[in-house]
Write a structure and sequence with these properties.
Number of strands: 0
Shape: globular
Distance between the termini: 38 Å
Structural class: mainly alpha
Order of helices and strands: HHHHHH
Radius of gyration: 17 Å
Number of helices: 6
Largest sheet: none
Length: about 170
């Protein structure tokens, strides 16, 4: 692959099974390190793409997919291991399923060559809150702050889902 940011993104995707393996084998601190590595690699590939003008259409799709794969696999695995409440995972996964279905519907009606994926501010805040939730679980910090973070994460996730749904529906109509 000739594009360094895309290569970094692929490495991030390939780190997900290792991350899950560490979680399943109760190595939360090492899983935390892999998760942090994934976050740093996400920032790094974006920085390189913008700084050296290496943005690609593939990267525009691959980067958010890598983020979603990591976040969704984290939530599913943490619930299966009883380290995270089911309800927050249902909110997080439900939003992404809803947006995925919306994306498939849009494929029928729009030209992907001209359509650009545009993350919103609330979407970025949602991603940050979802990541903070995972970081707190992996670090074992489940005090009163954790409950507040869960509710903020849920509110941001629902808000961003509704926002994206509204925004994309306006494109279709």
């Amino acid at each position: 692959m000739k594009n360094l940011p895309n290569l970094i993104t692929i490495i991030r995707i390939l780190s997900i099974p290792f991350f899950i393996y560490l979680l399943i084998n109760d190595h939360d601190i090492y899983a935390l390190y892999v998760f942090i590595f994934a976050g740093i690699s996400d920032a790094l590939d974006g920085f390189i793409a913008r700084t050296w003008n290496l943005k690609t259409k593939l990267g525009a799709y691959l980067d958010p997919i890598a983020d979603k794969l990591l976040i969704l696999s984290s939530y599913v695995t943490l619930v299966l291991l009883s380290k995270l409440q089911v309800w927050i995972s249902v909110v997080v996964i439900g939003r992404d399923v809803l947006l995925g279905v919306m994306g498939l519907i849009m494929l029928k009606f729009i030209d992907l060559r001209t359509y650009n994926i545009r993350p919103s501010i609330i979407g970025k805040v949602t991603t940050v809150m979802q990541i903070i939730t995972i970081l707190l679980v992996l670090s074992g910090n489940k005090g009163s702050l954790f409950s507040i973070v869960l509710w903020i994460t849920a509110a941001a996730t629902i808000s961003s889902g509704l926002h994206y749904l509204y925004r994309e529906c306006r494109i279709l109509w």
